[in-house]
Amino acid sequence: MDDSNQDLKSPPRKKRYIRITIVLLAILGLNLAGTWIGHQINFQIFPRHDPVLHATVMVAMAIYILLMATPFMPGIEIGMAIMMLLGHKSALLIYLCTLIALSISYLIGRFFSLHVVQRFLQWLYLEKASELVSQLEPLKRYERLDLINKKAPKKIAPLLLKHLYLTIAVVLNLPGNALIGGGGGIGLMVGMSGVVPFYKYLAIVAIAVLPVPLIIYLQGI
Amino acid sequence: MTNLSWAGENSAILDGMAFVGKNGEVGKELADYEDEEIIFENGMFTSVSCEPYNFGSSPYKAKANGDKIQFDAVTESPTHGKISWTGVIDGEEAEVQFVWTKERWYWDIRREYWFKGKLKK
User: How far is A105 from chain B (nearest CA, A)?
Assistant: First the structure.
């Protein structure tokens, strides 16, 4: 995957803003519609609904793990939305689920046939994720990791090239990592490379994704 | 106007009374389907609608304030959290606010409710 190609393919800024605005309006519209429907049927939550509330949160977390583990899916956004909804204490749960999700993407890349993964993603109509796997499949193991290095900021790239684990940690936190599939895509690539043992990968991820949930947990937003 | 302390001989002045009515979340209408009965007996407060969820009876405190009687109580459930009740009994009518809280390591629930009931005869 080439940076210049990505730049050419990316939509103009104006179009991007229009799309973001449409998405935000859609979210706002759904929220208003949900509130209106709830008001119309006078739905009220009582202590007896506690198991349902708990189950709903668990389902939301399962969806979050699935989205986070899948390349090019909006996992982080869902995680942030859950944190805003449930409050600061949920940051710990989100953190643990993020570790599970990124472990899943690594393990899929490490142990599953890439052809099967690619076909499965295609079957789900996840075209970009499927394309990423098919691009990586013919590459040698170290070449797969080069993709991560290419996404690192130019100024610190030479330093990161010498420090693979630091590179993974930095790229996991870069806003631009969406270009290579976000956290799920990075986990998949690292797993596919076979260069980093799972326990080291887990340690890197545990440290790399900690700052934001920790700040939210401690500050109590 | 008489101001009595919460503690003391007046704490059980509501004993023998029960009120039936409806519950609802604060900010919403009373829910037609939410029947409630609150009972004061032997110095204990009981919410009948909450009993199935392991909220047992608990001691209540009451004081007379003019013609009205104010009370509060806290009921706890090992499975569903805690409910704090505060209310006013005015003649044969009860107006009660209660707050349900449940703390988990990853999420706290806090919701406010109200109850309006009439003396059960």
Answer: 24
DSSP H helical segments within B28-114, as ranges? none
Q: pLDDT by residue (tens digit) across A48-82?
A: 889 988 998 999 899 899 989 988 887 777 888 88
Q: Is A124 helix (H, G, I), strand (E, B) or coil?
A: coil
Model confidence pLDDT, tens digit, residues B80-106: 999 999 999 999 999 999 999 999 999
A44 vs B31, B53, B108: nearest CB = B31
CA distance A198 to A110: 9
Domain count, chain A: 1
The answer to whether B23 and A46 have CB atoms below 8 angstroms apart is yes
Alpha-carbon gap, residue A175 to A156, rounded angstroms:
16
In terms of Cα–Cα distance, which of A106, A109, A96, A31 is closest to A65?
A96
* Cβ distance of B104 and A89 shorter than 8 Å: yes
Dihedral sign computed on CA atoms, order B53, B59, B62, B68:
positive
Residues 31-90 of B with CB under 8 A from A: 31-32, 34, 50, 52-53, 55, 77, 79-81, 83
Q: Which residue's entry shows tokens 């970009």? A: A128
Distance between B5 CA and the closest CA of chain A, angstroms: 31
Which residues of chain A does B23 touch, with a Cβ-Cβ cutoff of 8 Å?
A: 46
DSSP 3-state of A126: coil
Which one-letter DSSP state was computed for residue B87? E
Global confidence as pTM: 0.73
Which residues on B lie below 8 Å from A44 (Cβ)? Answer: 24-25, 28, 31, 34
A153: domain range?
2-219
Cα–Cα distances in angstroms (integers) from residue B25 to residues A164, A170, B54, in the given order: 54, 47, 20
| Residue B111 bridge partners (DSSP) | B100
Judge whether A173 and A214 are in contact, CB under 8 Å.
Answer: no
